[in-house]
């Protein structure tokens, strides 16, 4: 009987904690709407290949540099879609980017201002070299025994991330002013939840194709679909 | 001279003397304490001394910039390579020190010839190119407690060097030949070479232990060299690394002024790695880029060759060692070959006349003992850098080996000359010699080379047994003479 009670209490505690952990969704989320963005690109994918002369065990013998990834139905991957001007508290979950197979995974990561964990699961020397202007730029070595390095980016900015040891490595950290953003998947789709109702401008950013905007109106409890076509 | 005038002169002399004393006392007071410079006065000095490379706007785009590698600093970004700070901007003293000592191994010369005042004014002016970067006071970098060099520390430094993979850029032996070398670019997209750790006298920011530890800890901003203070196992590892790096090469090049060719008996080994060669002390010869004839070589790859030379009763042999970060296969491939040449006048001259040092000219040829990758060693005659003709029936031989960013080469030929196109080598004669080198991987070919002016080499007198025979003979003769004198004296008395 006592065991059952203990199990029940534990379960209740766990449930309580999880509810607590998930409940503080961005302020103003109650009664918010969702945006389903679909980003397309009419041009051809841009993929460069490079022969690798080192660390072939981790990097392979050929580096594939995916500058423009176009998936099914011309969907454009790795585009950051964000709602300009929406108000909301920063995301609670720490952002994360990994260096795996001598690539940044994901290639584009979006976060609200704060800390990001930069992982090195390759177990070889990488160096975190950022080209930022609003935030202080960083160039720190991450040798094999440094599995994670945590860096802080406090100001909104699209930050280029490179590794000089493996010059083909390129990643982006999108530091966004509000939590209403998404990065498009292989089909060019992303969904932004709990956006406070109102009229906004939707910003789309892509590392090589630049920026585009589109007006959007979010209504409480509804999902608005937006299609954006990026041009060359 | 009237007494009063004389007094005035004496008085003036006294004042000048006092001033000189005062100035020297100030100058001798150790490193000049940071002073607030006058940016407007600095502007005048900048326009005269700096704008040629760094540009009037400080953007690193002066008229000379396109010829310079590494490229001149773009001051408008406020990003500086050399800093003693944990933050992104250097201290005034850091800027002053770079102006004073220059950037070794680059086109930036030391400006210690300028008065202190001018240099401080320049510091103030430079900061004005990126005022927002210098708003915050720089944060001093706190280095861990110094660890003196020892065998143990060097061993730990090597272990860390391998663990943090310094070799990726700097090479296994530190000769700047790492696999990432060709990919490296600075923040402006210009190609940039890693430091050759065996030549610390070329380290930007100096080769003091503190300077090296600071570069490792804080990184070199605007370049691929990252900061390592958070990326070593223990903070004091930066000192172990420093000690290891300083153990990789000689502390100074100690350039030679005369080449002595040592006399040996017996066979001379062809193997460039033979202990016969490597245990001999080298004569280091500095090389410069060829900038007289187009196309010029403003940024030579090879800046030094270490020479060891011997001769026996039949032949003369040269052992040459130089750093080249890229081995080129040469002949038969698309790559430009690597090459090295020794140059001599074909005939001895009675006076000071020698052929033009830049591989001779139309009227006076030079003789070359030349090695080229893929071709081997040959004898040639040149009437200028582009007029090279191999000599038929070459009697020269040799072998080169390449490992970890370094060539070792042995070139040999007979002492005697077969014809007028080649010189003969005789002991105790001063023979002019010059050197040329090409790094094919760096695009060097033809007039794009490193070279020296004329040096002299001298074959030391052969060892002989006379020194063991003559002195005893003289001693015996002297003794005999003394005995004779004594005998004569005794007979007379």
Structural overview:
The complex is a heterodimer of chains A (232) and B (493). Mean pLDDT of chain A is 89; it is low at 13-29. In chain A, the strands form five sheets. A five-stranded mixed sheet of chain A has the order 7-13-12-9-10, with no helix packed on it. Chain A has a four-stranded antiparallel sheet with strand order 14-4-16-17, with no helix packed on it. In chain A, a hairpin with a 4-residue loop joins strand 5 (95-99) and strand 6. Chain A has two helices and 18 strands. In chain A, 11% of the residues lie in helices and 47% in strands. Chain A has a single domain (30-230), classed as Immunoglobulin-like. Chain A has 232 residues and is mainly beta. The N and C termini of chain A lie far apart (69 Å). Chain B is α+β, with helices and mostly antiparallel strands. Chain B has five domains: 1-30; 31-134, Cytochrome Bc1 Complex, Chain D, domain 2 (Orthogonal Bundle); 151-246, Cytochrome c-like domain (Cytochrome Bc1 Complex, Chain D, domain 2); 258-459, Immunoglobulin-like, CATH 2.60.40; 469-493. In chain B, 27% of the residues lie in helices and 17% in strands. Chain B is built from eleven helices and 14 strands. In chain B, strands 1, 2, 3, 4, 5, 6, 7, 8, 9, 10, 11, 12, 13 and 14 form a 14-stranded mixed sheet that branches. In chain B, a hairpin with a 3-residue loop joins strand 4 and strand 5. The longest helix of chain B is centred in the C-terminal third of the chain and has 27 residues, at 466-492. Chain B is globular and about 100 Å long. Chain B starts with a helix and ends with a helix. Mean pLDDT of chain B is 92; it is low at 25-30. The interface between A and B is medium-sized, with 23 and 23 residues.
């Amino acid at each position: 009987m006592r065991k059952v009670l203990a199990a029940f209490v534990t379960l209740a505690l766990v449930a309580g904690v999880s509810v607590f952990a998930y409940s503080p969704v961005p302020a103003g989320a109650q009664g918010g709407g969702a945006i389903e963005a679909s980003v397309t690109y009419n041009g051809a994918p841009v993929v460069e290949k490079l022969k690798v002369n080192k660390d072939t065990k981790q990097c392979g013998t050929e580096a594939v540099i995916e500058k423009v990834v176009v998936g099914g139905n011309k969907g454009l991957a790795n585009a950051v879609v964000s709602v300009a001007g929406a108000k909301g508290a920063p995301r609670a979950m720490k952002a994360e980017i990994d260096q795996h197979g001598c690539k940044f995974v994901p290639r584009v990561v979006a976060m609200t201002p704060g800390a990001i964990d930069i992982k090195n699961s390759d177990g070889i020397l990488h160096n975190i070299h950022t080209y930022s202007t609003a935030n202080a730029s960083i160039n720190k070595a991450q040798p094999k025994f440094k599995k994670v390095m945590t860096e802080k980016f406090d100001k909104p900015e699209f930050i280029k991330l490179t590794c000089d040891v493996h010059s083909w490595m390129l990643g982006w950290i999108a530091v966004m002013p509000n939590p209403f953003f998404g990065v498009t998947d292989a089909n060019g789709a992303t969904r932004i939840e709990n956006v406070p109702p109102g009229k906004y401008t939707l910003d789309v950013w892509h590392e090589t194709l630049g920026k585009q905007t589109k007006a959007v109106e979010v209504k409480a409890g509804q999902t608005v679909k937006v299609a954006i076509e990026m041009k060359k | 001279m009237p007494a009063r005038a004389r007094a005035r002169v004496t008085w003036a002399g006294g004042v000048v003397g006092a001033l000189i004393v005062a100035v020297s006392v100030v100058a001798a007071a150790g490193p000049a304490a940071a002073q607030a410079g006058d940016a407007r006065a600095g502007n005048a000095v900048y326009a005269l001394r700096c704008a040629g490379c760094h540009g009037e706007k400080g953007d690193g785009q002066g008229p000379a910039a396109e010829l310079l590698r590494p490229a001149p600093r773009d001051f408008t970004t406020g990003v500086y390579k050399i800093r003693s700070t944990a933050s992104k901007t250097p201290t005034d003293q850091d800027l002053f020190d770079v102006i004073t000592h220059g950037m070794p191994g680059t086109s930036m010369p030391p400006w210690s010839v300028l008065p202190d005042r001018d240099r401080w004014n320049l510091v103030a002016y430079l900061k004005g190119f990126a005022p927002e970067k210098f708003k915050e006071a720089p944060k001093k970098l706190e280095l861990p407690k110094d660890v003196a060099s020892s065998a143990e520390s060097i061993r730990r430094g090597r272990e860390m060097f391998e663990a943090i993979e310094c070799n990726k850029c700097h090479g296994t032996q530190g000769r700047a030949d790492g696999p990432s070398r060709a990919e490296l670019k600075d923040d402006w997209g210009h190609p940039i070479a890693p430091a050759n750790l065996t030549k610390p006298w070329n380290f930007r920011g100096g080769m003091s232990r503190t300077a090296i530890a600071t570069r490792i800890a804080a990184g070199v901003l605007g370049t691929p060299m990252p900061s390592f203070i958070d990326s070593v196992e223990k903070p004091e590892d930066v000192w172990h690394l420093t000690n290891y790096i300083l153990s990789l090469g000689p502390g100074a090049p100690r350039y030679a002024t005369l080449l002595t060719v040592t006399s040996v008996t017996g066979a001379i080994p062809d193997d460039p790695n033979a202990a016969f060669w490597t245990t001999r002390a080298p004569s280091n010869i500095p090389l410069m880029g060829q900038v007289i004839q187009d196309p010029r070589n403003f940024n030579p790859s090879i800046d030094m060759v270490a020479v060891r030379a011997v001769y026996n009763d039949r032949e003369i042999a040269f052992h040459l060692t130089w750093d080249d970060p890229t081995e080129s296969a040469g002949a038969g491939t698309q790559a430009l070959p690597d090459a090295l040449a020794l140059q001599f006048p074909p005939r001895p001259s009675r006076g000071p006349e020698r052929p033009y040092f830049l591989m001779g000219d139309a009227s006076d040829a030079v003789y070359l003992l030349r090695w080229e990758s893929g071709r081997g060693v040959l004898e040639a005659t040149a009437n200028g850098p582009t007029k090279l003709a191999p000599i038929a029936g070459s009697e020269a031989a040799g072998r080169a080996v390449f490992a970890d960013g370094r060539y070792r080469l042995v070139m040999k030929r007979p002492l005697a000359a077969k014809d007028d196109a080649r010189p003969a080598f005789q002991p105790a004669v001063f023979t002019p010699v010059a050197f040329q080198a090409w790094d094919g991987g760096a695009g060097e070919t033809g007039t794009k080379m490193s070279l020296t002016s004329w040096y002299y080499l001298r074959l030391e007198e052969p060892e002989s047994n006379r020194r063991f025979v003559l002195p005893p003979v003289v001693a015996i003769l002297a003794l005999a003479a003394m005995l004779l004198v004594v005998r004569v004296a005794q007979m007379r008395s």
